[in-house]
Design brief:
- The protein is built from 14 helices and 15 strands.
- It is globular, with a radius of gyration of 21 Å.
- The protein folds into 2 domains: 148 residues, Aspartate Aminotransferase, domain 1; 244 residues, Type I PLP-dependent aspartate aminotransferase-like (Major domain) (Aspartate Aminotransferase, domain 2, 3-Layer(aba) Sandwich), CATH 3.40.640.
- The chain is of the alpha/beta class and 399 residues long.
- The structure holds pyridoxal-5'-phosphate.
- Pyridoxal-5'-phosphate binds next to helix 5.
Amino acid sequence: MEPRKIIEESEHYLMHTYNRFPVVLRKGRGMKVWGADGKEYLDFLGGIAVNVLGHCHPKVVVAIQKQAQRLIHVSNFYHIEPQIKLAKLLVTNSFADKVFFCNSGAEANEAAIKLARKYAKEHYGHDRYEIITALKSFHGRTLAALTATGQDKIQKGFEPLMPGFKHVPFNDIHSLREAISAKTCAVMLEPIQGEGGVNVPSDGYLGEVRELCNRHGLLLILDEVQTGMGRTGKFFAYEHYNMAPDIMTLAKGLGGGVPIGALLATDKIAAVFKPGTHASTFGGNPLACAAAIATVEAILEDGFVLDHCNRMGEYFRGRMMQLKETCDQIIDVRGKGLFIGMELTRDGMPIVKACLDRGILINCTGGGNVLRFTPPLIVEKKEVDVLAELLDELLSRSI
Ligand code: PLP
């Protein structure tokens, strides 16, 4: 189909839930994607932190092909090897003992909220159901996840929202302490806020949250949907902070581009989920698990991907800091690993559009003035240089 026709039919047949750019993408390999018109793009968005190994990584492609020839789907009434193998990989490499698989970040968070409520009811009685989350957080678009999300614009129009959520400023331990009541059952946070503007907490914050949760018998849920799978230079972002959650959610990078989400928890907490309490038809599907196994193995294999992510992250932030020295439109450059935000004094969208025209995919978040970079973890210096030079040019012009 002609690109123009695809865009026309997209407008006609799809619900208008996205402000899509008038570009049709058809092919991808590593850091690059190609439009239907043959135009080449460097992908610094990586499907919003999804394509951790780049586009169509050969190991992921082969794993999907092999699994597709063997078994694509069966019910969770039966055992399948890929699901067990993936769960074992995640458990071995995290604080957790048990995994529940689903299909997206919102679903994983929905499951986390259910698990925390059920655990609190069984251990402390019916009045402990409240979950404290952060302002500017993002936890997904299902009704409980959007209620957990600390942003009015995500919630507007869907009232009445779920009862039992409170929001406090991120990285503010005093506000969190004040918000805890006899009704509180859990605290739910992103280790680094993504959609809120790549907000990195101070070094001690998550450790203090952990202590506070211990003292009050609260569960700590970390939403690592965006920060997990090596994005910040550690396999999971909590590893930077010398602490661990009780419950963690994953999605985005887990399947290397194939939809899959996961809820991880310690044995004691996981034990409250019993047959009939939670389920997902597609959760832990053989095809998705095969892709995720290949992705996890490639990330963890001899530490190369994580080392590379740390080195490139440092280089990337260094290049962006250089731009900041000469450009007064840049307020801040922040992030960890290859999870990087550049806060501007101005709306970022014209920059995003100009980058697209010039063959680079990025986006902006956090109120529209934070450019967000979540490239594949295999990005190279020369590609970072191309982006830095373009940003330098664009930010010195009045676009
Ligand atoms: N949690 C976080 C931290 C996210 O960044 C996102 C998506 O951007 C979600 C949850 C929702 O994930 P999904 O879009 O897969 O439902």
